[in-house]
Specification:
Distance between the termini: 41 Å
Radius of gyration: 15 Å
Number of helices: 1
Helix content: 10-25%
Structural class: alpha+beta
Number of strands: 5
Largest sheet: 3 strands, mixed
Strand content: 25-35%
Shape: globular
C-alpha cells in the first residue's frame, strides 16, 4: 500500500481458484509503524478483502478466506469463524 507515493504497508496473501471456489490464505502483514495514518493494517485488510470479494463475485465462486489460528477478537470482525480439520496421510 502506498500513500503519497510512499510505501506504507504490505500484506501477503496466497490464493488459488478452482471449480470448488476461490481460496485465500492470509500469511502476514507489515507496516511502517511511525506512520501518521492510524489503523494501517485495518485499511489494508479491508482493501484486500474487498478486492478478493470482487474477484470471487465476478467469477461466481464462493470465497473462503483463512486467517489461520483465531488469535484475536479483531479477526472475528472480518469473518465468520469455522472450525477446520487437517488430515495427515503417511
Amino acid at each position: 500500500m502506498f500513500i503519497n507515493d510512499e510505501p506504507l504497508a504490505i500484506q501477503l496473501i496466497l490464493a488459488v481458484k478452482s471449480k470448488a471456489g476461490f481460496f485465500a490464505d492470509y500469511i502476514n502483514v507489515g507496516y511502517k509503524q511511525d506512520s501518521a495514518i492510524k489503523s494501517v493494517g485495518t485499511i489494508l485488510m479491508w482493501n484486500n478483502l474487498k478486492c478478493l470479494n470482487d474477484e470471487a463475485e465476478a467469477e461466481k465462486l464462493p470465497l473462503h478466506y483463512s486467517y489461520g489460528f483465531m488469535s484475536g477478537e479483531y479477526k472475528e470482525r472480518w469473518c465468520n469463524p469455522e472450525k477446520v480439520g487437517r488430515v495427515i496421510i503417511p
